Amino acid sequence: MAPGTARVRLRTPPPWTAALPALAVIGLFSAYPVAVLVGNSLGLGSAPADGGPTLEHYADALASASVRESLAASALVAGVAVLATLVIAVPVVLHQARQDRAGAGGASTDALLTLPIALPGIIIGFFAIVLNGRTGLLAPLWEGFAGLAYTLPGLLVAYVYFSLPRVLGPLRAAAAGLPHSLTESARTLGASKARVLATVTLPLLLPALIETGGTAAAIALGGYGTVATLSEGIRLLPLDVANALTTGYRLAASSTLAVLLAAMAVAALVLGRGLGRLVGRAVAS
Amino acid sequence: MAPGTARVRLRTPPPWTAALPALAVIGLFSAYPVAVLVGNSLGLGSAPADGGPTLEHYADALASASVRESLAASALVAGVAVLATLVIAVPVVLHQARQDRAGAGGASTDALLTLPIALPGIIIGFFAIVLNGRTGLLAPLWEGFAGLAYTLPGLLVAYVYFSLPRVLGPLRAAAAGLPHSLTESARTLGASKARVLATVTLPLLLPALIETGGTAAAIALGGYGTVATLSEGIRLLPLDVANALTTGYRLAASSTLAVLLAAMAVAALVLGRGLGRLVGRAVAS
Amino acid sequence: MTDLREPETGAPGLTVSDLTIRYGDTEAVRGVSVQVRPDETVAVVGPSGCGKSSTLRAVAGLTPVAGGAIGLGGRDITHLDPARRGVGLVPQDYAVFPHMSVAGNIAYGLRARRLPADRRRRRVAEMLELTRLTELAGRRPGQLSGGQRQRVALARALAVEPDVLLLDEPLAALDPQLRGGLRRELSAMLSSSGCATLIVTHDQREALSLGTRIALMREGTLVQFGTPRELWEDPADAFVADFLAGAVLLEAERSPDGAAVLDGRWRIPAEDLGTGPTGHGRTRLLLRDDSLTVTDRDDGAAVTARVVHAEFVGDAVRLTVDAHGHVFGVRVPPDARIGRSVSLAVVPGRATLLVPAP
Amino acid sequence: MTDLREPETGAPGLTVSDLTIRYGDTEAVRGVSVQVRPDETVAVVGPSGCGKSSTLRAVAGLTPVAGGAIGLGGRDITHLDPARRGVGLVPQDYAVFPHMSVAGNIAYGLRARRLPADRRRRRVAEMLELTRLTELAGRRPGQLSGGQRQRVALARALAVEPDVLLLDEPLAALDPQLRGGLRRELSAMLSSSGCATLIVTHDQREALSLGTRIALMREGTLVQFGTPRELWEDPADAFVADFLAGAVLLEAERSPDGAAVLDGRWRIPAEDLGTGPTGHGRTRLLLRDDSLTVTDRDDGAAVTARVVHAEFVGDAVRLTVDAHGHVFGVRVPPDARIGRSVSLAVVPGRATLLVPAP
């Protein structure tokens, strides 16, 4: 072997070369299709129907009452469902963290709780119909349950169930990462359990709550299966996107709706991460 | 305060009482609907159409050629897509772990790479159509691209893209958890980089690969949005479930398909977790 | 719970009586009794896993008590809620609240007790002064060094005027090079706080220098409880002698002309031996690193030992030798020539024969 | 790289010449030169952040070298791939492969070198023997204690017959109570392996007992390099004296009747002083813990010092005193009565005046 060929390449290369493989993956799988989609929605598509740069497709979409309603309903369902999910998840993960410390292995509980992550959205929609559809199993109990699945409260419950297993994992990791000595010290200093929760546990869990919430909201926004199953009721944005695609292949119009949906989802994710990091810095610096 | 009321409740309570809140969440959101669904599929539904315990709905479903094809295609797409995803993801996360150690903060790369987790499956199907639909943008380049989106390879690519951001997060955590001193020691003992990868890095990453792969396969199996957008081509199981639901409301038959889909997804998840833990024990004990 | 004796929990200071702690089926602590008088610092010391931390956590109310009683300031706190015990805990990792300033940390317990704002501010200022943190009052813990964080935790615990201060391995989290200085600093702050203090440590030097009394634990039981000098000069058993001073304690038989040890194979003349009283019943010989020397004599006053190891310790070479199955340390001058076995004799006056009081 | 001197990398053993290591803009190591002869153990010691670990990592090829040269067994390895250097690394966490048995770990380097199976088995058996692991050969690392894992890492590194063995803080990961015994065990195994060894440690006791020579580093530079006795008896500066022995080194002026220190405010009579030669140019007085005593005299031979702190250390009380801005340690008997200030005099023969060779 010639001298020099066995040299260690340890000098730090310029950042962009180091990031190359990762960036290639991004470009191949993200940036290019997104660019094409955005281009389409701006009338820059290569299809003969599209005639040059314009914002008219966005104007059309936002002028449509049904699209505006779907947008609002989507934002409401995703936001409220994720908030409700977090409210349910926090006591569960705190309880799990306590169990872990006591060594009372919650492995099976843990497995059961996150198992529903495997349940497709379409099955969850199905659950809702089975229980609260127009001829659902719960309908005989109270007539209000009949058809509840297709209403806003019904959708909310379905999406809470959809989001719960997705939220439990990351939150559990965050709760396990909180040093137990913090809450113990707060207790010995004279704080009640409620006070410790309000002044120590929740503030320190907040960054994780925000970030996890953002991600869950993004996934809920884009979740098609649940709402597709329940498509007789309230319309959410993914339904419109699918509709625009199937009822006549109008590339620009459907691209516009797709971009709106993707933008909302990405905004939720990015906002959650950014805000989470910001709060994290404020909380832990 | 009366003596005794301020007593610390620190004696370890019986396991089941401690697990109560978590179990309530499971019961409310999982166990009951699943039980109902399974009951329906076994002809135990309360709808007048269902007439007592029977396996005939399963027999019918499995006798149907289209259902059998969907089952096979679903398993194939989810399995192969996740394998391909892992193959792509491993070098990326190992590279990220290297970057992290060098302190060359890959925060922005990281954010970009996992951002597509926010992209709804329906949008990803849309990407595929835009690029490789019958009049897709890539069709002029090579005629094979036209309509590729509706074929098996096209679906595979779409599902790889769908799974990649979901796999990167957990794998990255696993890669970051591998002590760097292990690979460094292996290098000083005379092993080439390739040998270190094959004998140290990959074996130690294997449990995480299996578990993450199982979860990703479960989510891919149930992913409805992507295949719904591409429903003109190869049929996957979620499409059948949705169909059974919309074309005539036959509770037992559609429940059967739903149970099949859910069972496959849960099996992938549980298998991944169980096998991952098993391999982990074999690897790290 | 099944203990029929009346636990003495009425004394001022901290009284731990016959404490037993169980984790599942294992008894982590068995029948430990320790008292900390107001104004006194007791160091609980022992090897890892000896139950010392469990004892501290039981006093703080963070671990359930299976038997025995804990009294503090005349109250029985055995089963009291941790928030109502009046203890000041400084955990091993200091557990400084990362989302509060230094002043906010110190005020935490005062807010929880709903102290009026003006009195709270005054108390925080006092504590900042005591722990020399006044200039750092507005800082976040993330910007502090380990030693500064320790002081925040100490100030926070002292702010609520606890009946006992509990320190869990207070120096273990700090850079070894800085530990000596910070130990002296801590010792000064503890004595100026004037609060009964229980310190848990695995380091015998810390125990000797910080404790006015030392409780030495082993495998869940209390082996000896007394002043540092009592433990140093009259260890209860060979474990105490070894743990505290690296010394060896041998069963001895006293005769008018000296003492016989190692089953009579080594007879040490009376004129070479110091004597001291022991409260532990039997006659024993206490040998430290500097008690023995290498000699040319080969009479009954010397014992032959095999050299197991020799290591340079700066001003001397420390030999590890084995004599009839007992391992000793012997310091010899760094230029001494040492073979594979040596004859050892006592340096006059440096070995102590512990004799039971008549 | 810009160094024009010819680096001496041709000698047997390990030669580190004028090593410089940069992380970004900071120089972690500046111009450090250390030689390890075959059969010798060099301990690199210094406080945390002094660059000692970076030096070891550079020798192993795990950290890039910004300047200088590294030679091993006559070869220039400065920029060689770590797999081709012929070093045996024992990292601080031992890095035992968790998915291989003890024997599999030891065989790893031999497999990588494609040693025939029979020779590999023989070598593994030898190493198991040397490190007394034969009975544990089939165990997984998860079933081993810390000390056993250390021995696996050592056997694995020695198996490939390296030109130099690199140990990074070999005892830091172990239970403090067991460290003494494991240090002696390690020392015995190193000397029976007969391999040039570089040990990095922050603990001066480890350095003194394990190193045949000691390289003392501070803030990226080499402060002194010599045998333990050289560093102990003739420290290059006050930092070395303090770090290694907790001793104080004072500038002194020699006169026929003694020495004057503290700018002439303390005159020590010649009859009380030992003298030693120094290779470091200036006349200085070396004071250890046991060099000073509290005296009643109040003439020029004594110095008055303020007592900063007193702590019990077992057989004595160690005073920390401040005399004209210099801080000393003084041991006094545990029953001595000490006020707020003391008069200090030298214990005859216990203080050394270091005088430059003429």
Count of individual helical segments of chain A: 12
Distance between the first and last residues' Cα of chain A: 52 Å
CATH third-level topology of the domain at 51-116 and 161-283 in chain A: MetI-like fold
Q: Which residues of chain C sit in consecutive blocks of at least 5 with pLDDT less than 50?
A: 1-7
Instruction: Give the CATH H-level superfamily of the largest domain in chain C.
Output: P-loop containing nucleotide triphosphate hydrolases
The CATH class label of the largest domain in chain C is: Alpha Beta
Structural class by sheet pairing and helices of chain C: alpha+beta
Order of helices and strands of chain C: EEEHEEEHHHEHEHEEHHEEEEEEEEEEE
Q: How would you sum up the global shape of chain C?
A: elongated
Integer-rounded radius of gyration of chain C: 24 Å
Overall 3D form of chain A: globular
Query: Which architecture of the domain at 51-116 and 161-283 in chain A per CATH?
Result: Orthogonal Bundle
CATH domain fold name of the largest domain in chain C = Rossmann fold
* Total domains of chain C: 2
Keywords (chains C, D): ATP-binding, Cell membrane, Ion transport, Iron, Iron transport, Membrane, Nucleotide-binding, Transport
Protein name (chains C, D): ABC transporter ATP-binding protein
GO molecular function, one term (chains C, D): ATP binding
Organism (chains C, D): Nocardiopsis tropica
Summarize the structure in words.
- Chains C, D: GO terms for molecular function: ATP binding.
- Chains C, D: It comes from Nocardiopsis tropica.
- Chains C, D: This is ABC transporter ATP-binding protein.
- The complex is a heterotetramer, with two copies of chain A (about 280 residues) and two copies of chain C (about 350 residues).
- Helix content of chain A is about 70%, strand content about 0%.
- In chain A, helix 4 packs parallel to helix 7 (about 150-175).
- Chain A contains twelve helices and no strands.
- The longest helix of chain A is centred in the first third of the chain and has 38 residues, at about 65-100.
- Chain C has helices at about 50-60, 100-110, 115-130, 145-160, 175-195, 205-210, 230-235, 240-245; strands spanning about 15-25, 25-35, 40-45, 65-70, 75, 85-90, 165-170, 195-200, 215-220, 220-225, 250-255, 260, 265-270, 275-280, 285, 290-295, 305-310, 315-325, 325-330, 340-345, 350-355.
- Chain C folds into two domains: about 15-240, P-loop containing nucleotide triphosphate hydrolases (Rossmann fold, 3-Layer(aba) Sandwich); about 245-355, Beta Barrel (OB fold (Dihydrolipoamide Acetyltransferase, E2P)), CATH 2.40.50.
- In chain C, a hairpin with a 4-residue loop joins strand 17 (about 305-310) and strand 18 (about 315-325).
- Chain C is an alpha+beta fold.
- Chain C contains eight helices and 21 strands.
- The interface between B and C is small, with 6 and 9 residues.
